[in-house]
Amino acid sequence: MTLKKRLLVVGMSLAIAGVAVAAAVSVRAAGETINYADLAKIKAEGMQRSQVMELCSWLSDVYAPRLTGSPMAQKGADWTVAKMKEWGFANVKIEPWVNRNGFDRGWTNDKFYMAFSSADGKFPLPGTPTAWTPGTNGLVTGGVVLVTATTEEELAAFKGKLRGKWILTQAVPDVAAYWDPIAKRYTTEQLQTMELQTAPQPEFGITPPGGGRGGPAGAPPAAQPGQRVAAAAAQPGQRGAAATPAATPATPAQPAPGGGRGGQGAAAARNAFFFAEGALGTISTAPRGHGIYTIGGNRAADPATTLPAVAIAAEQYNRIARMLAKDVAVTIEAEIKNTFYPNPAVFNIVGELPGTDKADEVVMLGGHFDTWHAATGATDDNVGVAAMMEAMRILKATGVKLRRTVRIGLWEGEEQGLLGSREYVAAHFASRQALPAAPGAPAAGAAPPGGGGRGGPQGPLEFKPEYDKLSVYFNIDNGTGALRGVYLQGNDAVAPIFREWMEPFRGLGMTTLTIRNTGGTDHQSFDGVGLPGFQFIQDEIEYNALTHHTNMDTYERLQPNDVTRMATIAAGFAYLAANREEKLPRKPLPAPGQGGRGRGGQ
């Protein structure tokens, strides 16, 4: 071998050795120490040996639906606890809520049969009973009447005419065609618009006007927490969704404890009138049509004074209404069996991967465990639960060092107002105290747990010992879409950190940070008391257009490649947060008496 060749071989050997050394050590980016070797292990485990879709199937096909307080919620929790213990997680447990939050009754629908008939034939009516409404007294049959009246004066015209009748509760909705593709991903331009937004930030804990999801400038107002935006109006960066029956005339609602969604008083009076008149039940629909309908329910409804309520698709609803308009007599027969369960278990599920030298500090991952019941809750939020469980499994399977403890939290009662996560935050981190009453005024009630957020004044925070130990909470609850970045919740200080953390995952689609807030997910329970809590930006896919709170929210709507990437990125962010020298920076604490976010899970 010539000297030249010998030097070339030596040079190549040194280069290879240098690469190997570089791969084995942490690299300090501009401000963050990033161990690319460990991240490579996480990506290999997450992308090549993923178990996330199998988890999604168990949660969506076997242990579903899981309405809070239902027997299936308990069965699903038992399975989830067993799975996490099988994987070797520590401190796995079901943690009951301190407050029941109005869940005095669990509920299941055990049988549903409905059909309508006229002189010319009989036709099936697919649908779903609204949660916490009673069933029928066996098989019942009655005529149908359309009642759009809402005021006491208007309803008086129906006095004595509703006994033994089924009531269509709303005007016939128009059903638009799907002129554009239903499934959508963010375009590069949309993500850039979201990132470049410079809308004025609100005071701490208040979602900015017109920007619940950080939508582009000029977009229609986004849903504030506790509100909904019609699916047709949802813009990129918004959490638009078709209104749930609890929020619209689709299903007249009863007032819920501790708040609710919308003007419940008139709806409650309307339902009381129907009940007093001896109607058999109410039927509602959604304007989206195409066989899709939304579902909801009010846990405070008294079955002794509430009518059976059913949601059906617009195609069947409108057909019946048009027949009535032609003076064609229509009859509905139905048999609905619903079961109530007194004082059901209400809880959260937690498990941990213990840290090393900073084990008393905690990084949290989470999503909500409860679902609605017209389908199986695959995109809302079984996918978030499965992704976070898989993220924990990835960290355990790779054996990467975790300086801080990584904890998963799976929350019940999200759909009724982020209740489970609020309860957890109040128990472990901080809660709001009642404001002192003004002279001569009645004493104010205690503010909701976790900085509770019903939009009104809030009292001072009472901090718990664990408050200073939490570094960050990451949440997934925007459907099956790929993670594209992070909503910063107005926390400018984390932007340069997250920007560096995203770089190793740029190839998986993580590119965007937006300073804007997003609402309606469990990160708000943490953010509301001054803790770093974040929801990832996700591609829309079909979430608002098709699956959110509808009878179409099933396993088939999941996108496996997106979900696999989702879990891998969540594992990577948890790893980076767990091993950072300092906890993530926090926003300034809110002043006592400052308003908070509105209620409402999504």
Strand content: 15-25%
Q: CATH topology of the largest domain, which one?
A: Aminopeptidase
Q: Span between N and C termini?
A: 70 Å
Shape: elongated
- What's the number of structural domains? 2
Q: What is the CATH domain class of the largest domain?
A: Alpha Beta
**How large is the count of helical segments?**
14
| Mean residue pLDDT | 84
CATH superfamily of the largest domain: Zn peptidases
Strand order of the largest sheet: 3-12-14-13-17-20-18-19
What share of the residues lie within helices? 25-40%
Low-confidence stretches: 1-25, 199-262, 442-456, 594-602
| Overall strand count | 20
Largest sheet: 8 strands, mixed
Class of secondary structure makeup: alpha/beta
CATH architectural arrangement of the largest domain: 3-Layer(aba) Sandwich
Determine Rg (CA atoms, Å).
26 Å
What does this molecule look like?
The protein has 602 residues and is of the alpha/beta class. It has 2 domains: 37-103 and 345-431 and 449-579, Aminopeptidase (3-Layer(aba) Sandwich); 112-175 and 244-337, 3-Layer(bba) Sandwich (Glucose Oxidase, domain 1). The chain is built from 14 helices and 20 strands. The chain has helices at 3-24, 36-48, 52-62, 71-86, 152-155, 188-196, 264-276, 314-325, 378-398, 419-428, 495-502, 523-527, 543-547, 560-579; strands spanning 27-28, 33-34, 90-96, 105-118, 121-124, 127-129, 140-146, 166-168, 281-284, 309-312, 331-342, 347-353, 358-368, 404-411, 430-432, 461-463, 470-475, 483-487, 512-514, 533-538. It starts with a helix and ends in a 23-residue tail after the last helix.
